[in-house]
Amino acid sequence: MTMFQLLSVTALGLLLGWEFISLSRRSVRRAFWGLRCITWTAAIVAIVFPELVTRIALTVGIRRGADLVMYAMALAFLGTTFFFYSRYVRLQVQITELVRHLAIMEAQRSASNMAGPALDRGESPS
Amino acid sequence: MPDEIAALGPSDNIWVVVPAFNEGGRLVRALASLRGLEVQIVVVDDGSVDATAEITLRDPEIWVLRHVVNCGQGAALQTGIDFALQQGASIVVTFDGDGQHSAEDIARLVKPIQSGEADVVLGSRFLGSAIGIPRSRWLLLKLAVVFTRLFSGVQVTDTHNGLRAFSRAAASRIRIRLNRMAHASEILDQIQALKIRYREVPVTVTYTTHTLDKGQSSWNSLRIASQLFLARIIR
């Protein structure tokens, strides 16, 4: 085993171990936990048995194992980007709701109302 | 004052929602045109960094709602609509704060709702007139109409026209979730999905150097299309 393999497998092994510890400690979303575990395990297998990656690559019509890893990374990047974008959109919706709530709570109707929100005082338009 | 404007009365409980972001002088002109109409006005200051809110607060008849951060025109409209509904509005009109719209069109806009012919009335500059419209903008809007007819299935002659009127029932059912400019297409999508009765009426949109300074860039249309596409995937 080369120095690179040793170091990366150790780091990935620690990550995998941490996943199992965290599973017992806090509530985690099972699907994401499983996905992370699969990723770390696949990385360990690919580093320890590089010829296996080449064999899989040839099976799916890609000549080199390195290319397969690169394509997988590109797809993972797209998936991750989409995941975080959808989270960003949901967060934006929540922030908007909060901003809207504040705006309505603090509705004002003239310079004389600057001291406080109109709706809090039960004022309504004529 | 034209007869149509005189037809608006306080009993109609019409609320005009004006979204505004850094509008300054343009907003002053837009609000001045609304003065004298028997309507309630609510300006939603969408996190402006200029004196938009302060200018508006000088008028004691106008309600001002302030977004503490800029959320976008769609978000500002929904805030104003929510507020108007809370206050018992029976008709909600949306009116751009940049002075492009004509206050005289409001009476024509609310008429089909008052008579029970429609629940949403959309202003169309292509049925009415678009004064001073740049050729590139005209072409872009025509392309947007084709895009909308294809993807939303709503047979309109104008899209992205901020002058619209909603009955109370329609305003309660339509929920704008796209904060930025794509909200106009989203409203049409919802009209179609919720099977809301709609009508188009001719309106006048006036382009001036002031309004074009603030206006949307043509590239924004690509952003709007991508927002609509992503919004259909992310629910």
Number of helices of chain A: 4
Secondary structural class of chain B: alpha/beta
Question: What's the CATH class of chain B, please?
Answer: Alpha Beta
* CA gyration radius of chain A, whole angstroms: 26 Å
User: How many domains would you count in the coordinates of chain B?
Assistant: 1
- Roughly how much helix do the residues of chain A carry, as a percent range? over 70%
Largest sheet geometry of chain A: none
Report on this structure.
The complex is a heterodimer of chains A (126) and B (235). Chain A has helices spanning 3-25, 30-48, 50-59, 65-105. Chain A is mostly helical and 126 residues long. Chain A is elongated. Chain B has 235 residues and is an alpha/beta fold. Chain B has a single domain, classed as Alpha-Beta Complex (Spore Coat Polysaccharide Biosynthesis Protein SpsA, Chain A). Helix content of chain B is 42%, strand content 21%. Chain B contains 10 helices and 7 strands. Chain B has a 7-stranded mixed β-sheet, with helices on both faces. In chain B, β2, α3 (52-57) and β3 form a beta-alpha-beta unit. Chain B is globular.
